[in-house]
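Example record

The entry below shows one chain as it appears in the dataset: sequence first, then structure tokens.
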Amino acid sequence: MKALVLSLTPASRVQHFSKKWLSDPKLQGWIQVAEHDNMYAKCSACVVNLKTKCSDLIKHANSNKHKNAVKKLKSSKQVDLMLKHNLGKDEEHIDVVCANLRSALLIAEHNLSFNVIDHITKINKVNFKDSKVAESLQLVLVDEATDASNKKLLCILIKFIHGNEIKTQVLGLKEVDCDHGTAKGLYALLKQSLTEFNIEAKNVVGYCAYNASVMMGSKESVKQYLLNSNPHLISNGCICHTIHLVAISAAACLLERFENLLQNISTYFSRSPKRQSVLETFQEYMMNDKLKILKPSATRWLALSKCVDRILEMWDVLTELFRLADFERESEVAKIIYNELCNPIKKSL
């Protein structure tokens, strides 16, 4: 006779979200009820859903990942508080800030090109009701680059209101020597250019530069020196750089990375007239346009898209070219490139 064994285990108690957790010192500030399901709690700092079990919530609260997320959440500024700080009590300054906001909202809502901004006139009739507002609206754009002679230059542009038009002009092109490579030195060059055109730093209401710490840092930077002159300054980092960082972060989730393929193809043909001639021969034979290989750049943000488009246009030609190079065992790099070109997943990315 077979024995029948029964195993009896007590049923676990179902725990719903408790409102008292919102006032619990260990949980308050980040815990929320999950959307559409009170069986889960949501961590607003980590943006994850958690089981509504007290021990699990305490364990999550004590994790290093959560502590770092809470620290970042506390250090970030809320938009409404930033606006209240920037507006202040000066009515003239409120008009200036509101004028900037109207322009920004108009551009964002209608997805306008930056080339169209200078031709906007209707919004100016609403924004610039008096000359004081127009005189105060001056935006400074700063960028740093190195020319072909290996000299570092600081390019300074200014955007201002003249009559009913928004104009952009080059304020100065200053050479950056070893004494002006710091935030203080760069600000001195900027201040020198402003002084040459009788522009006071307090009238600069906007500042835009690339996102390096020397330009946009929270401690020692050109932005902080400008804030000392105008506490209501509105600063904005390089939009292209920001989008580039977002794209890199998104691409990191992909299983296959394509930057190495672009770099390998570019390096294979660079400084080799013979290989470039072979490429042209394949293009003629396959009746394709004679296109050049674009080199990806780490500092030319968003240029990666053009490199990808160019490789896709030349995909069939490159596949046949590297098939031959692999057959002739020309180099190990050619074999790697050919294997990646034959990978359908790589092309789909």
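Notes for this example: Residues 91-110 form the longest helix (20 residues). The radius of gyration is 29 Å.
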